[in-house]
Amino acid sequence: MKNRDLFPETKDVVVAGAGGSGLASALTLAEGGAKVVVFEKMPFAGGSFLFTEGTFAVESEMQRKRNIKVTRDEAFRGIMEYSHWKANAALVRAFVDKSASTIEWLEKQGVEFTEPTGTWLGGPRTWHLFKGFGGVAINALVANAVKKGIEIRYETTVKHLLREGNGPVIGAVVEDKASKQFKVRVKGVIIATGGYP
Q1: Any long-range contacts for 158-166 (C-beta under 8 Å, 24+ apart)?
Q2: Smallest Cα–Cα separation from 141: which of 9, 77, 56, 47?
Q3: Cα(184)–Cα(174) distance, integer angstroms
Q4: Residue 51 main-chain phi, psi, to 5 deg
Q5: Distance between CA atoms of 68 and 116, rounded to whole angstroms?
Q6: How many Å apart are CA 135 and CA 178, to the nearest integer?
Q7: What is the tens place of the pLDDT at every residue in 109-126?
Q8: pLDDT digits 0-9 by tens, 7-34
Q9: Strand bridging mode 188-191 / 181-185
Q10: Of 148, 178, 170, 142, whose CA–CA distance to 20 is shortest?
């Protein structure tokens, strides 16, 4: 594996999956100057994100403009109580605390929202609805990814990762729709294939 000729391509990071998390990861990496390629086994982007209506946030600018007063502490307690305090408290806290800045970041990527609403009648208005729902939001992320020079290859699957001994990952084996496999040398890999196996 030390022969660089075995790697016809070199990238900083490979992202497996062009759903919401994969595209967000790729865009964030590109903003930091990384050379990124995204491999998606489907002929289109989106994954389970295509069926999403919106996303949670508290203390967002949209809520402030509408005088919707739900605090991060209230949201944290609500989530933890719902889980009978069995959820990972540190993870829930991070999720809640970063939710407003996530909305702002998505808006900068071209994602539009309509109105914060509740997920049940009379519930707190923390659900930020996408304008056009998940499919339109994905289109905005893909368009921005293309503008930033992120390469997205559809109908191409990351089959397995390559390491030198017990060291870090140095590459990925990828298979295209013609069942042709090739290797990509990388500094890192993000696996974002959670919606579907």
Answers
A1: 158/14, 158/16, 158/39, 158/189, 158/191, 161/189, 162/1, 164/1, 164/2
A2: 47
A3: 8
A4: -100, 10
A5: 9
A6: 27
A7: 999 999 899 988 888 999
A8: 567 889 999 999 999 999 999 999 999 9
A9: unpaired
A10: 142
Residue the block writes with tokens 């890999």: 189
- Given the structure tokens 């490979």, which residue do they identify? 14
Report the 10 Å Cβ neighbour count for 64: 11
Tokens matching residue 26: 């790729």
Cα–Cα separations (whole angstroms), residue 50 to 47, 121, 195: 6, 24, 10
pTM for the model stands at 0.88
Burial readout 75-106 (b: 16 or more C-beta within 10 A, e: otherwise)? bbebbbeeeeeeeeeeebbebbeebbebbeeb
Q: Three-class SS of residue 11?
A: coil
Amino acid found at 125: R
Q: Which residue, chain included where needed, has tokens 């001994």?
A: 165
